[in-house]
Amino acid sequence: MKRTLLVLAFSLLLASSFAAHSTEEWKSRTVYQVITDRFARTDGKVTTCTDLSAYCGGTFKGLEDNLDYIQSMGFDSIWISPVPENFGNDYHGYAALNWYKINPYFGTADEFKSMVSAMHKRDMWLMLDVVANHVAYIDMEFEKVSPFNKEEHYHTKCQINNWEDENEVEYCRLSNLPDLNQDNSFVRENLINWVKWVIKEFDVDGLRIDTVPEVKRQFWKEYTEAADCYAVGEIFNSNVDYLASYQGPLPAVLQYATFFTARDVFSNPETSMYELRTMFNEIQEKFPDPTVLGTFADNHDNARFLSFNSNLKRYQNYIVLNFFQEGIPIVYYGTEQEFNGGNDPECRETMWGHMDTQSKMYNFISQMVHARKNFKVWEAQQVERFVNDEIYAFSRGEVLVITTNEDKKTEVTITYIPETYSEGETLVNIFDESDTVTVSNGSIDISVNDGHVKVYVPQTATVSE
């Protein structure tokens, strides 16, 4: 009997160690996004890549060898590129030729497994980018694709020209990429079987899903239910109603509403911070669950903030707002080294040769990530504490965030403070230990100096850590 129980217990432990993680479990995670081809090479060379539109040499092994660099900032999850074999020089992973063959430029299946295993030993989770809308640039030569090698597996050839026409978006081609027909039973079943296979075979913890609006909502519901893990979908649109309509068919979507609004606010001082209040109110009203949306300040599809606005303090305000708002925060590789690439492919720089763990922004990102963890902000609601044209302040539990899009000195008094703060309590800015404020008469006097972002936490908590 004892032996039977031990075998059962071991089997359950083994099963749980290879189980993808739920949406609820992902709430506590912070995600570091990489483009697999651009992060680190197997040979460790730091040779400059002269053509960012083709493969540069990043691999699974290179990423595995540099997990310390990522984990030391506090990140406990990594989003990597799609892994199927791709067409030609499509290093990014979004042009699959063979679903069941791992991209040889990234490494072997065993090297992929080794990387994931190394991550899991560190309690780091893998977020895998996946595509179910289209295949490689093969036009009508469908026989080149496996397993979708027949014309009947695709929608009739047409191009997306009107993004307001949902039918056209779902049935036509994005940039002439052959559009899979998910209404076809073979296509539907194989896409769903593949995502279940890749999760189990490589011990994947969660998904980022590409090109969501180009596929019917009902398919995504079946696809994500089959995946049985956290999945966040890409919808390149700022309209909150439109974005929110996909949360349900999907567990979560990338928070493009915040991305566009906050990017405008922090890059243009003439834009009022009241725009943030309006945006957050709309998000709370329309999304079923804002706490699981994927929040971000930069990514691989958009010019980096610093490419059009070199004001580092504004960038830091922008990053902090996106990081501490409700949601699961994602930080794009190179943010910690002030990368400033423009539109694709310039925003997809190589990381090798730039892994400076002593840089100002590396330290900044690390302080931010560790504060989110230490104070478990995902357990607390986002509450607006103060707003005027130049300042937006909000709290998450014991963490008080003060952001500004102005470089001048401003004095404000915040009277609506977190209930956890007590009279006479001292708060300290995580980015500057000399910057402290004291709760007096139920309020806090804040001095915003030269545009610096502030994140205050109880001083006693930082001492006890």
From TrEMBL:
Keywords linked to the UniProt accession: Calcium, Carbohydrate metabolism, Disulfide bond, Glycosidase, Hydrolase, Metal-binding, Signal
Annotated residues for binding of substrate: H134, R208, D301, R348
Active site: D210 (nucleophile), E234 (proton donor)
Gene Ontology biological process terms from the UniProt entry: carbohydrate metabolic process
E.C. code: 3.2.1.1
Membrane-spanning segments: none
Listed name of the protein: alpha-amylase
Organism: Euplotes focardii
Species classification: Eukaryota, Sar, Alveolata, Ciliophora, Intramacronucleata
